[in-house]
Each structure stands twice: as structure tokens, then as C-alpha cells.
């Protein structure tokens, strides 16, 4: 069945002035691989991308954003037509309380940066879920499973993809990943080290299988 995938990818940037920002090491590779894998299976894909240096996969509609608040607005706008939301973006948890419109001067910069929490995108769109399939990621340093299990429940997800980003072959910039898929039905599948393209294909296949089950149950 042809579905519409809404995929987020990359980091967000939280500016404190036009040239300085808080961000993280995400490169967007996993999210872009997911977008490509979904298109390859004949699905429609909207890719909401934070600032990354990756070309848009053929057949994908790309929406560029910078901050977490912009990403939230884009997800809210595009979720309406989506059947599946995959939040693979590494959304910055905090943003500066005050954003200067001009470059802050070194001598007037406050020594302490005041931060406020960013909205949780999955939390904010949870009321719109309905029959949509929601997939999240838990990128942790060390054993990711306990945190992944907690986030699966807390964020009301159908699937969470857990990975240990402290491993050099499974971190943000790597072309490979080693993940465990945890379903809301309790199913757990630990995949061996594989290329991100292959991990993406497995996640898309999981979503397709779950969707087929939903339709069967109706
Ligand atoms: O950052 P965290 O480990 O909590 O991310 C878990 C999941 O929640 C990821 O899928 C991420 O994209 C999503 N997330 C979100 N809004 C945030 C932070 C994370 O939707 N502000």
C-alpha cells in the first residue's frame, strides 16, 4: 500500500545571534537514508531537514528548517497528509532565552548563557496521531535500551530505534549503524552492524508490516 512518510533528519540549530548557535553532531545520514528507502518502496516522502550537507534524494519533497521551533511548525503543517511520522532528527533540547539580531560583541557577552527548553515535537503532535504510525529514535551513549523503552512509552510511539552513538561505527557521522528495534507490541529485534541504507530499508519494512496489520484488524 502506498503511504505518505513524513521524515525529519539532521540536527537543529538554536541561534544566540546571527553567527553563533547551539547544535549537535547529527549529520542527517539516517534520516536521508530513510527518505530514500521509503521512495524506493514507492511511497510519497516529505523530508523535513535541519542544516545538513546532503543532497535531496530523488523523488523526495524537502523542507529545510533551522531551529526546533521551525521543525515543529513544519511537522505540524505536513503531518495532516502523512500516514507515518519518523522522527530521526536530533532536535536540540534547549535554545537561548535571548536571541540577538546582530552579532554579540565579545566584551559584552554575558559569561552565562540562559537557556529555555525546546518543545518536544513528538509530544506536541501526539494528539494528532490517530491511526498514524509514529517512529522515534533513541540515540544514547552506552546501553540505549532502558532509555529507549522509557521513550517508547512516554512519547506514545509504535516503534523506537535505539542505538549507542558512542560507537565509532554507529555514531552520527558513520555510514553504518547498529540498532535495536523496539515495538509497542513488545517485539524486540537487534540488527547487526549494517549500512544506514539497509537499516532504513528494515525500518520501512517494519512500518509496512505494521500498517498491513492495522488494515487487517479494521
Ligand atoms: O532527544 P531524545 O532522545 O528525547 O529523542 C527521542 C525522540 O524524540 C527522537 O525521535 C527525537 O527526534 C524526538 N524529539 C522530539 N522533540 C524534541 C526532542 C526529541 O520529537 N524536542
Set down the secondary structure blueprint.
Layout: E1 4-9, E2 14-17, E3 20-22, H1 29-40, E4 44-49, E5 61-64, H2 68-79, E6 84-87, E7 94-96, E8 115-117, H3 121-125, E9 133-140, H4 145-154, E10 159-164, E11 176-177, E12 179-183, E13 188-190, E14 194-195, H5 196-217
Parallel strand pairs: 1-4, 1-6, 4-5, 6-9, 9-10
Antiparallel strand pairs: 2-3, 7-8, 10-12, 11-14, 12-13
Helix pairs in contact: 1-5
Bound molecules: cytidine-5'-monophosphate.
Cytidine-5'-monophosphate is lined by residues 68, 87, 89, 91, 118, 120-122, 136-138, 151, 155.
The CATH homologous superfamily is termed: CoaB-like
End-to-end span in angstroms? 15 Å
Q: Which CATH architecture would you pick?
A: 3-Layer(aba) Sandwich
Query: Sheet bearing the most strands, described?
Result: 8 strands, mixed
Q: Given the helix and strand composition, which structural class is it?
A: alpha/beta
Please count the helical segments: 5
Following the backbone from N to C, one meets helices and strands in this order, namely: EEEHEEHEEEHEHEEEEEH
Bound molecules: cytidine-5'-monophosphate
The helix content is 25-40%
Give a short synopsis of this structure.
By secondary structure, the chain is α/β, with parallel strands linked by helices.
Structural account:
The structure is a single chain. The chain is an alpha/beta fold. It has a single domain, classed as CoaB-like (Rossmann fold). Helices cover about 30% and strands about 25% of the residues. The protein has five helices and 14 strands. The protein has an eight-stranded mixed sheet, with helices on both faces. A hairpin with a 2-residue loop joins strand 2 and strand 3. Helix 1 packs across helix 5. The longest helix has 22 residues. It is globular. It starts with a strand and ends with a helix. The mean pLDDT is about 95. The structure holds cytidine-5'-monophosphate. The site of cytidine-5'-monophosphate (C5P) has 13 residues, from helix 3 and strand 9.
Amino acid at each position: 500500500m502506498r503511504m505518505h512518510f513524513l521524515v525529519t533528519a539532521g540536527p537543529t540549530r538554536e541561534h544566540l545571534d546571527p553567527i553563533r548557535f547551539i547544535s549537535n553532531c547529527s549529520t542527517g545520514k539516517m534520516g536521508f537514508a530513510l527518505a530514500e528507502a521509503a521512495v524506493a518502496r514507492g511511497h510519497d516522502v516529505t523530508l523535513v531537514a535541519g542544516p545538513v550537507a546532503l543532497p535531496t534524494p530523488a523523488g523526495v519533497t524537502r523542507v529545510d528548517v533551522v531551529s526546533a521551533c521551525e521543525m515543529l511548525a513544519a511537522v505540524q503543517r505536513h503531518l495532516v497528509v502523512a500516514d507515518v511520522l519518523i522522527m530521526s532528527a536530533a532536535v536540540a533540547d534547549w535554545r537561548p532565552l535571548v536571541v540577538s539580531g546582530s552579532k554579540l560583541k565579545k566584551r559584552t557577552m554575558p559569561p552565562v548563557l540562559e537557556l529555555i527548553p525546546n518543545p518536544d515535537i513528538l509530544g506536541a503532535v501526539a494528539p494528532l496521531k490517530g491511526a498514524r504510525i509514529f517512529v522515534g529514535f533513541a540515540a544514547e551513549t552506552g546501553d540505549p535500551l532502558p532509555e529507549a523503552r522509557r521513550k517508547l512509552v512516554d512519547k506514545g510511539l509504535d516503534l523506537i530505534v535505539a542505538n549507542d552513538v558512542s560507537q565509532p561505527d554507529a555514531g552520527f557521522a558513520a555510514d553504518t549503524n547498529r540498532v535495536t528495534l523496539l515495538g509497542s507490541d513488545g517485539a524486540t529485534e537487534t540488527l547487526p552492524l549494517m549500512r544506514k541504507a539497509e537499516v532504513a530499508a528494515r525500518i520501512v519494512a517494519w512500518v509496512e508490516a505494521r500498517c498491513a496489520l492495522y488494515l487487517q484488524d479494521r
